[in-house]
Design a protein that fits this description.
single chain; alpha/beta; Ribose 5-phosphate Isomerase B, Chain: A; 6 helices; 46% helix; globular; binds D-ribose
Length: 149
């Protein structure tokens, strides 16, 4: 499975740790940057990761900034993207199972490296339940995007 990953200047160190972890688990990782602590703008990297997913090149994405919040707001502006900002493994698992989230966001200033890789494992290890009310509700998210509400 191909995973897109991106961060802003607040999180290149944590991104490097997560990338190494993903590689050790056999994932192919596409890193859209940033690669340094020089100040930059998180929407640029959120957009780059979302583009990898909406184009079909990558199945899922990971975005890291200071809090994870800016990245999740920016990512959720994209049609077809369901981004969740998580700092607990229960939410990281459930957002795949219930919301069919395709982008996981978290903050380097919020979670440590140990929790970050556990969030990633919980997210990537879960599968969308794909039925019943979950299917109806995720279809409703698409309806909101399409202006049908
Ligand atoms: C950058 O200082 C910080 O605002 C950014 O990384 C992020 O936390 C925004 O949501």
């Amino acid at each position: 499975m191909k995973i897109a990953i991106g961060c802003d200047h607040a999180a290149p160190n944590l991104k490097a740790i997560v990338k190494k972890h993903l590689a050790s688990r056999g994932y192919e990782v596409i890193d859209v940057g940033t690669h340094t602590a020089e100040s930059c703008h998180y929407p640029v990297y959120a957009h780059a990761v979302c583009e990898k997913i909406t184009s079909g090149e990558c199945a899922l994405g990971i975005l890291i900034c200071g809090t994870g919040i800016g990245m999740s707001i920016a990512a959720n502006k994209h049609k077809g993207i369901r981004a969740a900002c998580c700092s607990d493994t229960f939410s990281a698992r459930l957002t795949r199972e219930h919301n069919d989230a395709n982008v996981l966001c978290f903050g380097e200033r919020v979670v440590g490296a140990g929790l970050a890789v556990e969030l990633v494992d919980a997210f990537l290890g879960a599968e969308y339940a794909n039925g019943g009310n979950h299917l109806t509700r995720v279809a409703m998210l698409k309806d909101i995007e399409d202006g049908k509400f």
